[in-house]
Design goal:
The protein has helices spanning 4-16, 18-51, 85-94, 130-134, 146-150, 160-167, 206-212, 232-249, 265-308, 310-318, 323-356, 372-398, 402-407; strands spanning 60-65, 83-84, 99-114, 117-126, 137-141, 155-159, 176-179, 182-191, 201-205, 218-219, 221-226, 260-264. The protein has 409 residues and is an alpha+beta fold. Strands 3-4-9-6-8-7 form a six-stranded mixed β-barrel. Helix 9 packs parallel to helix 12. The longest helix has 44 residues, at 265-308. The mean pLDDT is 83.
Length: 409
């Protein structure tokens, strides 16, 4: 293995056949390069999906109303399902022990002003439990509390970037912020790991919004978190139970899929992972196919190399070279080409992923990278199969009879 003369012979053989050596290495390097880039892009897609879940509790269930798609029990189709406070109370009273936190949501957009600064922001009217579902992190002051809800106070909690936009370097805590012409007191400033959009939100009590904008009890959505003692199957069954109960409550056909939409976070994660699993399967099939093509290329080129050097190998045997030494020489050449080319393909693939960086965010690919250990493992597998690919022509070379080889033209 570490015979200096043998390595010298191998390098001389490679030097005399530069094109053959280049083509051998190119197929291997290309295989590792494509495998690395594809796997990195797959991981980038995974990062994008996971980042969309990072700022929400893992045990959350979303309950939304839509429009009926079927007539049922005397009610016409296309009927709007409008949640109200009573439906929120229905959740809390009917699923005691199964629900940890529950909050309604009302969505609005509002023009906020402070001094000469102004901007349009999303307003979420919620219950204090919303803090636990959204994983809101308080930077200053406090979150909304029960008193804000029951007393319908004009207290608000603003995102970090709302403060930065409107107050610049000024501390906003305790200051007055005008939203759609109404003055509110800022009692807290929060940050959120969900990104910039989540930090340009203004939170206020849902009962305050109901009083100020319509004097009604309408809700856009109800979110809950279920007891963490439930396993995945129980959580999915619980979400289905809520959907069935709400369909019965609102006189909706059991097979109407658009009127009441109940989704558990675990279902979304499962569906996402199923999709990603399919994508990864495609990536591995394409990647492994590329690696196999590299191995086949090595095998074909080594076969051609042995045929081209028939006379040389015959002379070696005539001079006393053993079949074992000839097999070792051919295999070492195969392994050398595979190892060097595989390493270069690995380095180039990592470099390409670094160049891509976050430039593909619009295609939902974030921070595409791959574990070096995985690619090194793939390279080692490629080297192993390169060894096998070289073994067939190596055995053929070892069986060459000197008299036949010397007659070869």
């Amino acid at each position: 293995m570490f015979d200096k003369d043998r390595w010298q012979e191998i390098f001389e053989a490679l030097g005399k056949n530069k094109l053959r050596t280049f083509l051998s290495g190119f197929t291997v390097a290309l295989g590792i390069l494509i495998f690395t880039v594809l796997l990195g892009l797959g991981n980038g897609l995974l990062n994008s999906f996971l980042s969309s879940f990072v700022d929400d509790a893992q045990n959350i269930i979303f309950i939304r109303g839509g429009r009926t798609s079927k007539a049922y029990k005397g009610f016409q189709e296309n009927r709007r399902i409008q949640f109200e406070n009573e439906d929120y109370e229905f959740i809390k009273s009917n699923y005691m022990g199964k629900v940890e936190h529950a909050t309604p949501r009302i969505y609005r957009n509002g023009l906020a002003k402070h001094g000469k600064e102004s901007g349009s922001y999303t307003i979420r009217a919620v219950h204090p439990d919303h803090q636990y579902l959204e994983k809101t992190i308080m930077m200053k002051g406090r979150y909304l509390n029960e008193a804000d809800v029951e007393n319908r106070t004009k207290n608000i909690v603003i995102g970090r970037l709302v403060e930065k936009d409107l107050f610049k370097t000024e501390n906003s805590l305790g200051k007055i912020l005008e939203v759609d012409g109404i003055a509110y007191k800022i009692v807290g400033v929060f940050q959120d790991s969900g990104g910039d959009n989540e930090e340009r939100i203004i939170y206020m009590s849902y009962k305050t919004v109901q009083l100020l904008f319509g004097n009604n009890e309408y809700l856009d959505q109800i979110n809950i978190s279920y007891n963490m003692g439930m396993n995945t199957e129980q959580a999915i069954a619980f979400a289905q139970k809520i959907e069935d109960d709400f369909k019965e409550k609102f006189k909706v056909a059991p097979n109407d899929q658009s009127a009441i939409r109940v989704r558990s976070f675990v279902e979304e994660i499962q569906e996402t992972m199923t999709i990603l699993g399919g994508i990864y399967a495609i990536i591995f099939i394409v990647g492994i196919g590329t690696l196999i093509s590299g191995v086949i290329g090595i095998g074909n080129i080594m076969t051609f190399s042995v045929k081209e050097r028939t006379k040389e190998l015959g002379i070696r045997k005539a001079l006393g070279a053993s079949p074992k030494s000839i097999i070792a020489m051919v295999l070492q050449e195969s392994v050398l080409i595979t190892s060097v080319a595989g390493y270069l393909g690995l380095i180039l693939g990592i470099f390409v992923l670094k160049l891509i960086g976050n430039n593909l965010e619009e295609f939902f690919i974030v921070n595409p990278k791959v574990e070096t250990s995985i690619i090194i493992g793939a390279t080692m597998i490629l080297i192993f199969f390169g060894l096998l690919a070289g073994y067939i022509p190596a055995r053929r070379a070892a069986r060459i009879k000197p008299i036949v080889a010397l007659r070869d033209e």
